Amino acid sequence: MSTESTPVIPPGSTIGILGGGQLGRMTALAAARLGYRCHIYCPEPDAPAFAVAAASTCAAYDDAAALDAFADAVDVITFEFENIPAASAERLAARALVRPSWTVLETAQDRVVEKKFFAGIGAGTAPWRQIDDLGSLERGIADLGCPCILKTRTLGYDGKGQFRIDKPAQAAEAWEAIKGAPAILEGFVSFQKEVSVIVARSPRGEVNAFDVVENVHVDHILDTTRAPAQLPSELAERAAAIAHAAATALGLEGLLAIEMFVDFDGHVLVNEMAPRPHNSGHWTMDACITDQFEQFVRAVCNLRLGSTERHSNAEMKNLLGRSIDQWNEILSDPKAKLHLYGKLEARDGRKMGHVTRVFPRWKTDSK
Ligand code: AMP
User: Fold this and answer.
1) CATH superfamily label, 191-365
2) N or C of the chain: less Cβ packing under 10 Å?
3) Per-residue pLDDT tens digits for 276-313
4) How many CB atoms lie within 10 A of CB 248?
5) Three-state DSSP class for 303?
6) What's the CATH class of domain 14-109?
7) Cα 81 from chain centre
8) Separation of 191 CA from ligand 1 center, angstroms?
């Protein structure tokens, strides 16, 4: 169990990051500003984080020899996405400090375990059923009614591994679409808003959350985040309290993003969590005293957490695929901060960068 006496990983140390996407890249940049070196481990040779890291390993996530050498070369290990095989995370944990612990990863990797975790801390979710075969899917549809959403228990992101069922006759089609993988069936939440909260907890037990934000998804992919969320204060407080309770119950050492629905009856229902920096926290880079990536580094290294105070309101928009071609226009907008991830190929739907429009509060408040 971590305590106040848990050692600090001081600046100058090397942070190992599993995953080489934009989240790893922005973490490595934040770590460098605090004097750390990052060692990125990723199987894809052109991963965007490699370009900004001090050291890199390009190997499969189940390559035992590469994992061992990586663990021996770094002072602490974290991850920038949660679909690392559990056996690899365990292997690393036997040789090196892994934060957050792999038990947190396990809870977040499986939608059924995750739903049970949230029930255990008294946080509501959509009604759900565990689905193991076509029979249990048919019974689940009868119980929850239509529409409902069939999701694979593991490895889903940005709407992948999901099938919306509008009538019971679609059961077999849905089961086939997710290839008969272990699944969860969720009742459809008619929501007025989707919101998220990013919370950090350090090994010394400090907990600190960013403001609640609202998110708009298009085709299951985050399109826009607005900070702060326009919500009655009791709902924003409820969302923040869930995040705080989850970080504490998990014994989190790192960062946790929790996505939630606000339904029309004013309930806050958890959708899912990710124990890492999150797309809906990118706005913090330009609108908060400490951003989510620096906070992540501080938490993983057991430094004091930074202030999450929001000095500006903000609107973050993802730049998917060819929409990065607008980079030149964006640069001429005085409110815009452009972030590009250095990805070589602008495939449709691929997250290539984001732009945050910033509205300083001293200006908005004085009106
Ligand atoms: P997920 O991959 O679970 O985050 O789902 C992606 C998006 O699909 C969410 O951000 C929602 O917009 C939508 N969605 C997922 N689950 C539900 C649900 N149970 N009810 C309504 N919409 C959902």
Assistant:
1) ATP-grasp fold, B domain (3.30.470.20)
2) C
3) 999 999 999 999 999 999 999 999 999 999 999 999 99
4) 14
5) coil
6) alpha beta
7) 8
8) 10
